[in-house]
Automatic annotation (TrEMBL), chain A:
Keyword rRNA-binding attributed: no
Keyword Manganese: no
SUPFAM superfamilies per record: Thiolase-like
Family in the record: Belongs to the thiolase-like superfamily. Beta-ketoacyl-ACP synthases family.
The protein's name: 3-oxoacyl-[acyl-carrier-protein] synthase-1
TrEMBL record, chain B:
UniProt keyword annotations, A-Z: Transferase
InterPro entries in UniProt: Beta-ketoacyl_synthase (IPR000794), Ketoacyl_synth_N (IPR014030), Thiolase-like (IPR016039)
Organism of this sequence: Algoriphagus chordae
Coiled coil (UniProt feature): none
This protein's name: Beta-ketoacyl synthase-like protein
Source lineage: Bacteria, Pseudomonadati, Bacteroidota, Cytophagia, Cytophagales
Length: 391, 354
């Protein structure tokens, strides 16, 4: 696994922040926006120039911040997985993004016509460009490389596709994940939807005021049983179940009864061949918007009835990292399994009046066998992944 | 493993492709560097009030998907998988310009909401109340092939029995101007017939929506069988022929068994040599077909090529306008498609007559 987010530049730092309840939410520094006093974000401190230097890129590179973040996280994942030769088996890359090169496009939108120096970024605007660069960085050549963009469920879907490609025998190893940087485009977009909180986001709280946007990237290395056996690899966790369903309710909002999320969770349980009672912890989507937390909470009740497992949203740490969120939270789910630890849902005070559901507010040590992770997005896209200690 | 069939096809393009009963009988010839898709009668498919809020890409996607579904007699598919290189470009441009021009003030959410790349897939699901699997792929010139490969996986393993697959891209004025600045679009206007003789940098750009209903049960109306799809992020020129032969070998086929090769020639002097390697090489004696002079180049334009291949296999005819050479006019059993854009994101797609 590899990750970079507002709470850490790698897996170890992210874990440390999670257990020490250290949030990454702050006032925005890197983007000059008129909204800087009205919003808070999960921003990564490192500048593009520092990333460029760290990656050893030439000065005429045209990496968007999305591609830079993705490269850093994917390189860590590959290193941690102990992959020495990318060509030793059929290795693909499935990435996810929703912002892509928009950070550069919005910066040079009109300047492009006058300043040849910035025109290189015209080519890196499209969403597939970051996967191209990540593939270059980690040495994936002549292979299946694609990008998924289904808004806030994108990276969860990338993990799902990776698992299916291995299951079908199309690939032996797939590097899966997602990346999104902050941009004026998304800040203003979510601002117009009036779902940005002006303070620290409070998932599942009655008085939640909306989400904080964040930027992040995370990648995981999925390998087939054969590769694991042949190379005597240590398995961190198994992708046991996955489900994707469409809420088909509204272009941006989730249905109040949480139908899409319910279907996704049920399908994931079915694929995993597991009962709801086997889930020990849910890393919720929990964006802290009025709409999401109500819909997702209802979906928990639909699937788990009276016995909703411990759940928490880690978005109070990272902010909502859009297309990357599913991968960020997949890493956290695996960390939860490895450490037998339920991460705390920060900033929660008052239970929602619609139901009697309280997230886990303090780190809780307990034996975890299966962890569920939800990702719900625009366009009604709902995805659930189940990670397990056992195959 | 179950077989995969193309049950129905629908295309909105710069050609007259909406009417299923004709097959490029009357070809629109252009003298331009940007080709717009010919608008169908949107009001026959989308209520006027709803259509007013939609950009051309969304409208084209909805019409093409409705045609593909109705032609297959399927009301709600098990899954919807789309591919788009640049997504809903018009709304993205509208929102970015508004942010800059109004200094982040007085913005409305409509264009932001509609700018996400999965807008078309989400809209189709919403309209059909299709609660199944819904993915959108955005990998440049393999956006459509990624969708195709995903559908193929699910149908072969019987996770789904019918899937709506489509490719959509729309032109955006600002992006078109930027692409001209970056020389991605040819600086001169070129006539459709002379595209490959242009020998200049850049392409003639276009837009369109091509949708297909794929299923794993054969029916009388099926257009073709999808045998295999392969995607490569990079391919060196020296590797192209051997990878192609490997792909055919994996499908127990040889070069001589391919009845037509459909190439994504787009007139860009910098990258058309990839196709020449095949058409001058192992496929020199094979019927060669091209199409981007008719559709324009765009990230999901290979879906127009896929439409063309299906039309050829079903009708067993080959329109004059798409022939690159003269080898055969009938007897098409296997058709192979090869596409790449700017030397990246290569794909092979293999179809067989049904």
């Amino acid at each position: 696994m590899g990750i970079i987010s507002a709470i850490g530049n790698n897996v170890v730092e992210n874990y440390e922040s999670l257990i020490h309840e250290k949030t990454g939410i702050s006032r925005i520094q890197k983007i000059d926006t008129v909204h800087h006093n009205d919003i808070m974000v999960g921003e990564i401190a490192t500048t593009n120039e520092e990333f460029i230097q760290r990656l050893g890129l030439p000065s005429d590179n045209n990496y968007s911040r999305t591609a830079l973040l993705g490269s850093i996280a994917a390189l860590e994942a590959v290193k941690n997985a102990g992959i020495e030769d990318m060509g030793s088996c059929r290795t693909g890359l499935v990435s996810a993004t929703s912002v892509g090169g928009m950070d550069m496009t919005e910066k040079f939108y009109y300047e492009y016509f006058e300043n040849p120096a910035c025109q290189k970024y015209i080519l890196s605007h499209h969403l597939g460009d970051s996967a191209k660069k990540i593939a270059e960085q980690i040495g994936v050549k002549k292979q299946f490389v694609t990008t998924i963009s289904t808004a806030c469920s994108s990276a969860a879907n990338a993990i799902m596709l990776g698992a299916r490609l291995i299951k079908a025998g199309k690939l032996d190893r797939v590097i899966v994940g997602g990346t999104d940087c902050l941009s004026k485009f998304t800040i203003n977009g979510f601002k117009t939807l009036m779902i940005l909180s002006d303070t620290y986001n409070t998932p599942f709280d009655e008085n939640r005021k909306g989400l904080n946007l964040g930027e992040a990237a995370a990648f995981l290395v999925l390998e087939s049983d054969e590769i694991v056996k042949a190379e005597n690899k240590k398995v961190l966790a198994y992708v046991k179940g996955y489900g994707n369903a469409n809420d088909a309710f509204h272009q941006t909002a989730s249905s109040e009864n949480g139908e899409g999320a319910t279907l996704a969770m049920q399908q994931a349980l079915k694929i995993a061949g597991s009962e709801p009672s086997s889930i020990d912890y849910i890393n919720a989507h929990g964006t802290a918007t009025g709409n999401n937390d109500l819909s997702e909470g209802k979906a928990f009740l639909n699937v788990f009835g009276e016995k909703v497992p411990n759940f928490s949203s880690t978005k109070a740490f990272t902010g909502h990292t859009l297309a990357a969120a599913g991968a960020i939270e997949a890493v956290y789910s695996v960390l939860a399994l490895q450490n037998n630890l339920v991460f705390p849902n920060l900033n929660f005070k008052t239970p929602m009046k619609e139901f009697d559901l309280k997230p886990q507010t303090e780190a809780k040590h307990k034996e975890l066998k299966q962890v569920m992770s939800n990702s719900l997005g625009f366009g009604g896209n709902c995805s659930t992944l189940i990670f397990s200690k056992e195959a | 493993m179950k077989p995969v069939y193309i049950h129905s096809i629908a295309s909105i393009s710069a050609q007259h492709t909406v009417d299923e009963s004709v097959f490029l009988d009357q070809v629109e010839s252009y003298e331009d560097n940007v080709l717009q898709a010919i608008d169908p009668e949107y009001k026959n498919f989308i209520p006027r009030t709803a259509a007013r809020r939609m950009s051309k890409g969304v409208k084209m996607g909805i019409v093409a998907s409705k045609l593909a579904l109705s032609r297959a007699g399927v009301e709600v598919p098990d899954a919807i998988i789309t591919g788009t290189g640049l997504g809903c470009l018009k709304d993205s441009e509208k929102f970015v310009s508004a942010i800059i021009d109004n200094k982040e003030q007085f913005l409305t959410p409509t264009s932001f909401i509609q700018s996400t790349h999965n807008t078309v897939g989400g809209q189709i699901a919403l309209e059909l109340q299709c609660k199944g699997y819904n993915f959108t792929y955005v990998q440049a010139s393999v956006s459509f092939e990624s969708a195709l490969l995903d559908a193929e996986l699910q149908l072969k393993t019987d996770e789904a029995s019918n899937i709506l697959v489509g490719g959509i891209d729309e032109l955006g004025d600002h992006t078109t101007e930027l692409f001209k600045v970056a020389k991605l679009i040819k600086s001169e206007k070129v006539s459709s017939e002379a595209l490959l003789e242009s020998k200049t940098k850049g392409v003639v750009y276009g837009e369109g929506a091509n949708f297909f209903l794929l299923c794993n049960e054969k029916s009388e109306n099926c257009y073709s069988e999808l045998i295999d799809t392969a995607i490569f992020n990079t391919l060196e020129k020296e590797e192209l022929t051997s990878e192609l032969q490997e792909f055919l070998k994996n499908n127990q086929l040889s070069v001589d068994e391919i009845d037509a090769i459909i190439c994504g020639y787009n007139g860009d002097v910098q990258f058309d040599d990839y196709y020449e390697l095949l058409t001058d090489g192992v496929f020199a004696q094979t019927q060669q077909v091209y199409y981007k002079h008719l559709s324009g180049e765009y990230h999901s334009s290979s879906a127009f090529g896929f439409w063309l291949a299906n039309k050829i296999l079903k009708t067993q005819t080959l329109p004059k306008a798409v022939k690159l050479n003269q080898v055969k006019d009938s007897g098409f059993e296997f058709i192979l498609l090869y596409n790449q854009y700017m030397g990246e994101n290569h794909s092979f797609t293999l179809l067989r007559k049904c």
